[in-house]
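Ops channel
N.P.: pipeline sanity check, posting one input/output pair.
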């Protein structure tokens, strides 16, 4: 937090308000420019993290990667401090999802300063991998995530019912395979047989567990075919909700210039209340 003892109250208030509008709002040129530059910084930082995981690149450009990493860490630290200093309720932001993501994005780099011993190198690698959380900061700037969130929230009951059915199905099929295959390798008990049913239904097929009987192979073939259809179900549920939300949003944009009413169909050409032509521009 900025010490107000050396800054006049009015000056600090103006600075705080201006900083808040730039960082948290998107209705000015300065705020839009801030979002664009920060977005570029996040993408560049994540790119550096990815390159740092490639051993050949790390050996050749180790110093450059470390320098750039700390440059972005300091940049994101300044951004985090400015967010806390400019908002009226800092505690609410600090413990919010976005606040925690912003904090997690910068902490691992500072933690590595305290683990410099040889036996702590493994811990350092783990902490450095946590820097990938910076990619979640992109959520600040992708408005379409709200559409996806609303669609997931609206379809959660259908998806929960579907997952319940799926869990029951793999459990029953796993039990059947345990009976059919007996004590052959991989089907000694129901949990192992259920594991086989899951990887078969999802068409992953590791190949570590395979049926040997004719009945078992037949059931496995049917399960693979059913798996393709099952994968499409949650996709269809979510796609239908996204389409519904998008259509609902478009219906609000179509406002009749005569009666000033909305809630028209997305393909409407005339007002359904007064029959006047709609302005589709």
């Amino acid at each position: 937090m900025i010490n107000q003892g050396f800054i006049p109250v009015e000056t600090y208030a103006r600075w705080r308000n201006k900083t808040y509008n730039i960082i948290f709002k998107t209705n000015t040129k300065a705020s839009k420019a801030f979002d664009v530059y920060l977005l570029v910084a996040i993408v560049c930082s994540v790119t550096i993290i990815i390159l740092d995981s490639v051993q050949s690149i790390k050996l050749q450009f180790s110093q450059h990667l470390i320098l750039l990493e700390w440059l972005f860490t300091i940049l994101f630290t300044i951004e985090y401090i400015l967010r806390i200093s400019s908002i009226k309720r800092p505690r609410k932001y600090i413990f919010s999802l976005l606040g925690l993501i912003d904090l997690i994005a910068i902490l691992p780099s500072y933690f590595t300063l305290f683990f410099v011993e040889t036996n702590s190198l493994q811990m350092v690698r783990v902490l450095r991998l946590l820097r990938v959380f910076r990619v979640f900061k992109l959520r600040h700037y992708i408005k379409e995530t709200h559409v996806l969130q609303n669609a997931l929230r609206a379809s959660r009951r259908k998806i929960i019912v579907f997952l319940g059915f799926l869990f029951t199905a793999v459990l029953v099929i796993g039990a059947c395979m345990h009976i059919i295959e007996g004590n052959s390798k991989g089907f000694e008990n129901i949990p192992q047989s259920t594991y086989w049913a899951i990887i078969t239904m999802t068409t992953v097929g590791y190949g570590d567990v395979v049926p040997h009987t004719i009945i078992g192979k037949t059931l496995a073939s049917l399960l693979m075919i059913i798996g393709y259809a099952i994968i499409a179900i949650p996709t269809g549920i979510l796609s239908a909700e996204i389409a519904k939300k998008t259509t609902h949003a478009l219906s609000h944009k179509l406002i009749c210039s005569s009666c000033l009413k909305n809630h028209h169909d997305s393909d409407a050409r005339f007002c359904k209340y007064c029959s006047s032509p709609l302005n589709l521009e």
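N.P.: looks fine end to end. The longest helix spans residues 214-253.
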